[in-house]
């Protein structure tokens, strides 16, 4: 759910900066599917998560922002191995000393 909140914050920043096109890059296959399917109108949200209603509201908010402000949103799934943010978050191993 925090990732969906981050998408909404990013879209609000897009609007504040006067941009019309933005690329959403996520390493979450679930978030990618939810947003991509919502934008394309391809499928309804499917989740077994306990907070389904909260997730649905966030997806609806994202879709409303995209439609209301005529935003061009490109949704890209980033492999974890190629995700710079993940690399920064991983602790580096210090060389072992004897």
UniProtKB/TrEMBL annotation:
Listed GO MF terms: nucleic acid binding; RNA-DNA hybrid ribonuclease activity
Pfam families referenced in this protein's UniProt entry, alphabetically: RVT_3
Domain RNase H type-1 residue range list: 1-36
Protein name: RNase H type-1 domain-containing protein
């Amino acid at each position: 759910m925090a990732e969906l909140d981050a998408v909404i914050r990013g879209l609000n920043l897009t609007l504040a900066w006067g941009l019309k096109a933005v690329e959403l890059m996520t390493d979450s296959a679930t978030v990618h599917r939810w947003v991509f399917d919502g934008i394309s109108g391809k499928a309804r949200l499917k989740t077994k998560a306990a907070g389904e209603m909260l997730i649905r509201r966030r997806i609806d908010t994202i879709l409303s922002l995209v439609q209301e402000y005529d935003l061009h949103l490109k949704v890209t799934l980033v492999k974890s191995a190629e995700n710079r943010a993940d690399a920064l978050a991983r602790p580096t191993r210090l060389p072992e000393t004897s």
